[in-house]
Each structure stands twice: as structure tokens, then as C-alpha cells.
Specification:
There is one protein chain. The protein is an alpha/beta fold and 209 residues long. The protein has one domain: Uracil-DNA Glycosylase, subunit E (3-Layer(aba) Sandwich). Helix content is 36%, strand content 14%. The protein has a six-stranded mixed β-sheet with strand order 1-5-2-6-8-7, with helices on both faces. Strand 7 and strand 8 form a beta hairpin.
Amino acid sequence: MPPEAPRDCPLCPRLAEFRAANKRALPAYFNGAVPSFGTADAKLLIVGLAPGLHGANQTGRPFTGDYAGDLLYATLAAVGRLNGTYAARADDGMTLRDAMISNAVRCVPPQNKPETSEIKICNGFLAARIASLQNLRAIVALGTIAHNATLTALKLKKSAYKFGHGAVHPLDGFTLYDSYHCSRYNTNTGVLTPAMFRAVFDRVEADLA
């Protein structure tokens, strides 16, 4: 499979139907498989869950337009991974520095919950994206689904690499770092604080230095 799904990807019927419904209800939105965002020479890859309905599904750029993106891009700016200023729009001119952001599932799922079969089908795109990054040294998985999808893409046993916020898993050639997802739900409930999130990326930057 190629590293990116076509915008009108038909592989998951439920997601394709949901996209079509959103296109009718929200015609100004991107409403397609959201491509990865960043640089081809990335040393750092961030893997999220899936596009948010009113975030990446609206703007066509991962983590752009919703709270999760506000926290993620603010954190990346703080650790020096941003050029320009994030303004929650795909045309804000902001770019990443030696980094890329992708998702385990490229199309927005109903209620933000992809089915197991959809995660499996989309995993080929993630595997191809990881394989394309020749300078890759670190992957940050945002949440359990992203963690497991990354291990599947790398053909590694999940039982050997347990997810845990702040966990660090040395792999062959690079390192996998775990963080709770930067969703509003997780921050509102105290599962994740901005300081906890920042600490993960501080560790990554220290290791990459």
C-alpha cells in the first residue's frame, strides 16, 4: 500500500458512508481521508487515533481545528518542532521541523470510534508511512489504539510492549514513546495534563539531541 490513502478511499464501507453523509451535511469540510502532515526527512513521527469530525475532517490536516490540535501544536512549538504559528487552519503557513503527524485511521469515524476491522485495513497505510521515513528515530503514540497500530505496522507483538503514559520502548533503529491522547476529554478529566504531555516530548527531544 502507499503511505497515504486516496481522499475518497473506499476500503472501509462504514467510514465511506459516514464521509458521504458529512459531505452532504457539511459541504465546506474536507470530508476525506486526511493525509499525514510534515517533512519527508522526519526524525519524529507522531501517531494519533483518527481525524476529529470538526478538526482534521474539516481542515484536511491532522490535529488542526480542535482542542487536541491546540495542545499538540502548542507543545511542539514549545520544544522547537514548529516553524511559523499554528492558527488552527490548514492555510496558516505553519510547518513542522524534522517531524510528521499521522493517524492510525485516516478517515473520521462515527463517534470518534473506529472499528477493529477499520484499524486493521488502514494499518497498511501507516506501515508504508513509517517505512518511508528513512531518518526516523522516534515515534510518539497518542493513546492505546495508536500504540497498538504502530506495533502492528512494525510486525511486533503487543504483549512485548505494553502501553503506558510516559513509557519508552527501544525498538530496532528507533524508539516508541507512549502518551495519553491529547483529547479534551482526557484533559478535562485530569487523565492528562499539559505538563504530563510536555514531559513526554521533553524526553523525546533529550533523546534526539
